[in-house]
Amino acid sequence: MRYFKWGVARLILEPEVCPDIIPMWIEGNDQIMHESRTWPRFVPRVSKKCGVWFGENVGGDGNTVFHELRKKWQKLVANSMSKNEEEMEVGVLNNELKYGKEAIELREECTRQIRGEILKIRRLRGLPDEDPKDGLVGTWREEGRKREGKMEDGSWVKDT
User: Fold this and answer.
1) How far apart are CA 65 and CA 72, in angstroms?
2) Does residue 139 have a pLDDT over 70?
3) Element (H, E) at 49
4) CB under 8 Å to 23, separation ≥6 — which residues?
5) What DSSP character marks residue 156?
6) Cβ-contact 117, 58 below 8 angstroms
7) Per-residue pLDDT averaged across 43-47, rounded?
């Protein structure tokens, strides 16, 4: 499983109320329709098994690590707003919240935590742990500018 992009962290950190966060693991979709299948075999395979497993809610009203991360984010936003007199629109971030070291670290930690919750479900399925470096952005930077298709590690990537 590749690293999670920061949009995942923004969906968790930025709303006024902590959203319900239900981690899920999907298994077998590559058997139904692998990304390498092209014309004329683009039709999904039938009679293949696919499963979806859900974890417990790790957001919402409970007191979880995501609530602590959200408090840090809200403090960071308040500090940024006190320096900047201009009101920001919803969903728009200033440069400090986009590129500031603390903001970047907070988003990375949030995506690491949600990824960890999904990996717990993977373990419950009896699947082996993956290589810890697979979840790091730096691991994927080494593959160069190739954005789609079969990667050097054998994984498939497609931006949609």
Assistant:
1) 11
2) no
3) none
4) 54, 55, 58, 114, 117, 118, 120, 121
5) E
6) yes
7) 77
- 1 neighbors 135 (Cβ within 8 angstroms): yes
56 with 20: CB under 8 angstroms? no
More confident residue, 121 or 147: 121
The answer for residues whose C-beta is within 8 angstroms of residue 113's C-beta and 6 or more apart is 65, 66, 69
**Lookup: tokens for 40:** 């004329």
Q: Return phi, psi of residue 157, to 5°.
A: -130, 135
Radius of gyration of the chain (CA): 19
- Work out the average pLDDT over 7-31: 91
CB–CB of 69/106 below 8 Å?
Answer: yes
Closest CA to 11 of 111, 117, 137, 100: 111
- Residue 160: the pLDDT is 43
